[in-house]
Write a structure and sequence with these properties.
mainly alpha; 2 strands; 76% helix; membrane; Phosphatidate cytidylyltransferase; transferase
Length: 266
């Protein structure tokens, strides 16, 4: 626990200044985290990032992560109408590679690479886009994720009796799941009282409940992936906390959600 607390403090001290400043440094940091996360998910499958399929997947990831205005410049430079065409081209190259190596890499592995690129890439892309809307929205996202995670942990330890999904994550409980939502709503309302950023308290409550649930589902998705590949953590870049995906799994689900909900109508 001591190691986890120290690592969390150091990581927050390094991450938060980038969040506050935003712009290019924040984009580059998020892109670097996405690359590490993509490396972690490929490693679980036994695919090297430095192989031909891994490299093509990496190009797909980068194109998905970078801000929309950056990707528009890329597609303009190479003469395509949209980045979707470039992603489609990379997918075709991956499939052609399957033929060239006579199924030494399979269709299933290509599908895994592409799904991994979309899962990791789009989640981090929307983190960058959320910051472009305003610092308060990133703060809200982080607040929901961190308070949900902490609330679920402490409420689960204190009151948890009924297992939530024991086949996926044995330690999580129904009480912790609900407690995480309640704590997230309380902190979100506190943020709204200090710095009004949402359209109103009622909409904020519903959005926070939904975001908290989706965030916890994102955590369970990562747990399901790790359980399938029989690994404890996605990586070991953060002592006591695991890898990038271990720490950002919930956020990868929450930030796209806020864009689907049109960021509180703004």
């Amino acid at each position: 626990m001591k190691q986890r607390i120290i690592t969390a403090i150091i990581a927050a001290a390094l991450f938060i200044p980038f969040v506050i400043y935003g712009k290019v440094p924040f984009t580059i940091l998020v892109l670097a985290m996405a690359v590490v996360g993509f490396y972690e998910i490929l490693k679980m499958k036994g695919i090297s990032l430095f192989s031909v399929p891994g490299f093509l997947g990496l190009l797909t990831l980068i194109l998905l992560v970078i801000p929309t205005n950056w990707s528009n410049k890329v597609v303009d430079a190479i003469g395509y109408s949209s980045n979707l065409m470039v992603v489609y081209g990379l997918m075709m190259l991956l499939l052609i590679y399957v033929v060239l190596v006579k199924n030494k890499i399979t269709f299933d592995e290509v599908a895994f690479i592409l799904l991994g690129a979309f899962y990791v890439g789009l989640g981090f892309h929307y983190l960058i886009e959320t910051r472009s809307y305003g610092l308060e929205f990133v703060v809200y996202c982080l607040l929901v994720v961190w308070t949900t995670d902490s609330g679920a942990y402490f409420v689960g330890r204190k009151l948890g009796k009924n297992k939530l999904w024991p086949e996926i994550s044995p330690k999580k409980t129904v009480e912790g799941f609900v407690g995480g939502i309640v704590i997230a709503v309380i902190f979100a309302l506190g943020m709204q009282a200090i710095y009004p950023f949402a359209d109103g308290y009622v909409s904020l409550i519903f959005i926070t409940i939904f975001a908290s649930i989706i965030g916890q589902m994102g955590d369970l998705v990562e747990s399901a992936i790790k359980r399938h590949f029989d690994v404890k953590d996605s990586g070991n870049i953060l002592p006591g906390h695991g890898g990038i995906l271990d720490r950002f799994d919930s956020l990868l689900f929450v930030v796209p959600l806020l864009h689907f909900l049109h960021l509180f109508g703004n």
